[in-house]
Amino acid sequence: MSRFAITWFETKGMDPGPYGDAEILATARGVAVEGVVQAGILEASGGTARLLRRHELDPDWSPATDDRLTVWECAQHVVRHLDDGGEQAVGHLIDALGHCVDAAHALAFRLYGICDRKKLGNDALIWNDLVTQWSRLIDSADEGDSPPQPSGLFRDDSRSP
Description:
Elements: H1 2-12, E1 17-18, H2 19-28, H3 33-38, E2 42-45, E3 48-51, H4 71-97, H5 101-117, H6 121-143
Antiparallel strand pairs: 1-3, 2-3
Helix pairs in contact: 4-5, 4-6, 5-6
């Protein structure tokens, strides 16, 4: 499902597109559009489909209870937690991500590259900042005692992946 989200983002960004395009892409990625919707990262209705923005994702989401866990969702929530609760919130989330941590880091780096290539400056900055802070965030998760430090870097995610 994350491969679906990455490819959709590369071609359409966060904009809506025809449902038929989503269906073709989902089939090519070995998933169903309905499965991506149920995973909580896509909205599909009225003949269109679009990726959900970070601020539209379930605020009560937990990787421990998500039965359709996607790396896309993990990376988006890491950014959201960093902005809303700072390093301590991200540390708790990183602890909960378990085996998805490395994949979320790799996806953040890939999203930076996509945004940079598409000249999406603010979005590129968001993902670059996350990638460059990653080691410190992992250390913060390992220590579990850093005070909350909201970054405020990611407030405007109206267009962001």
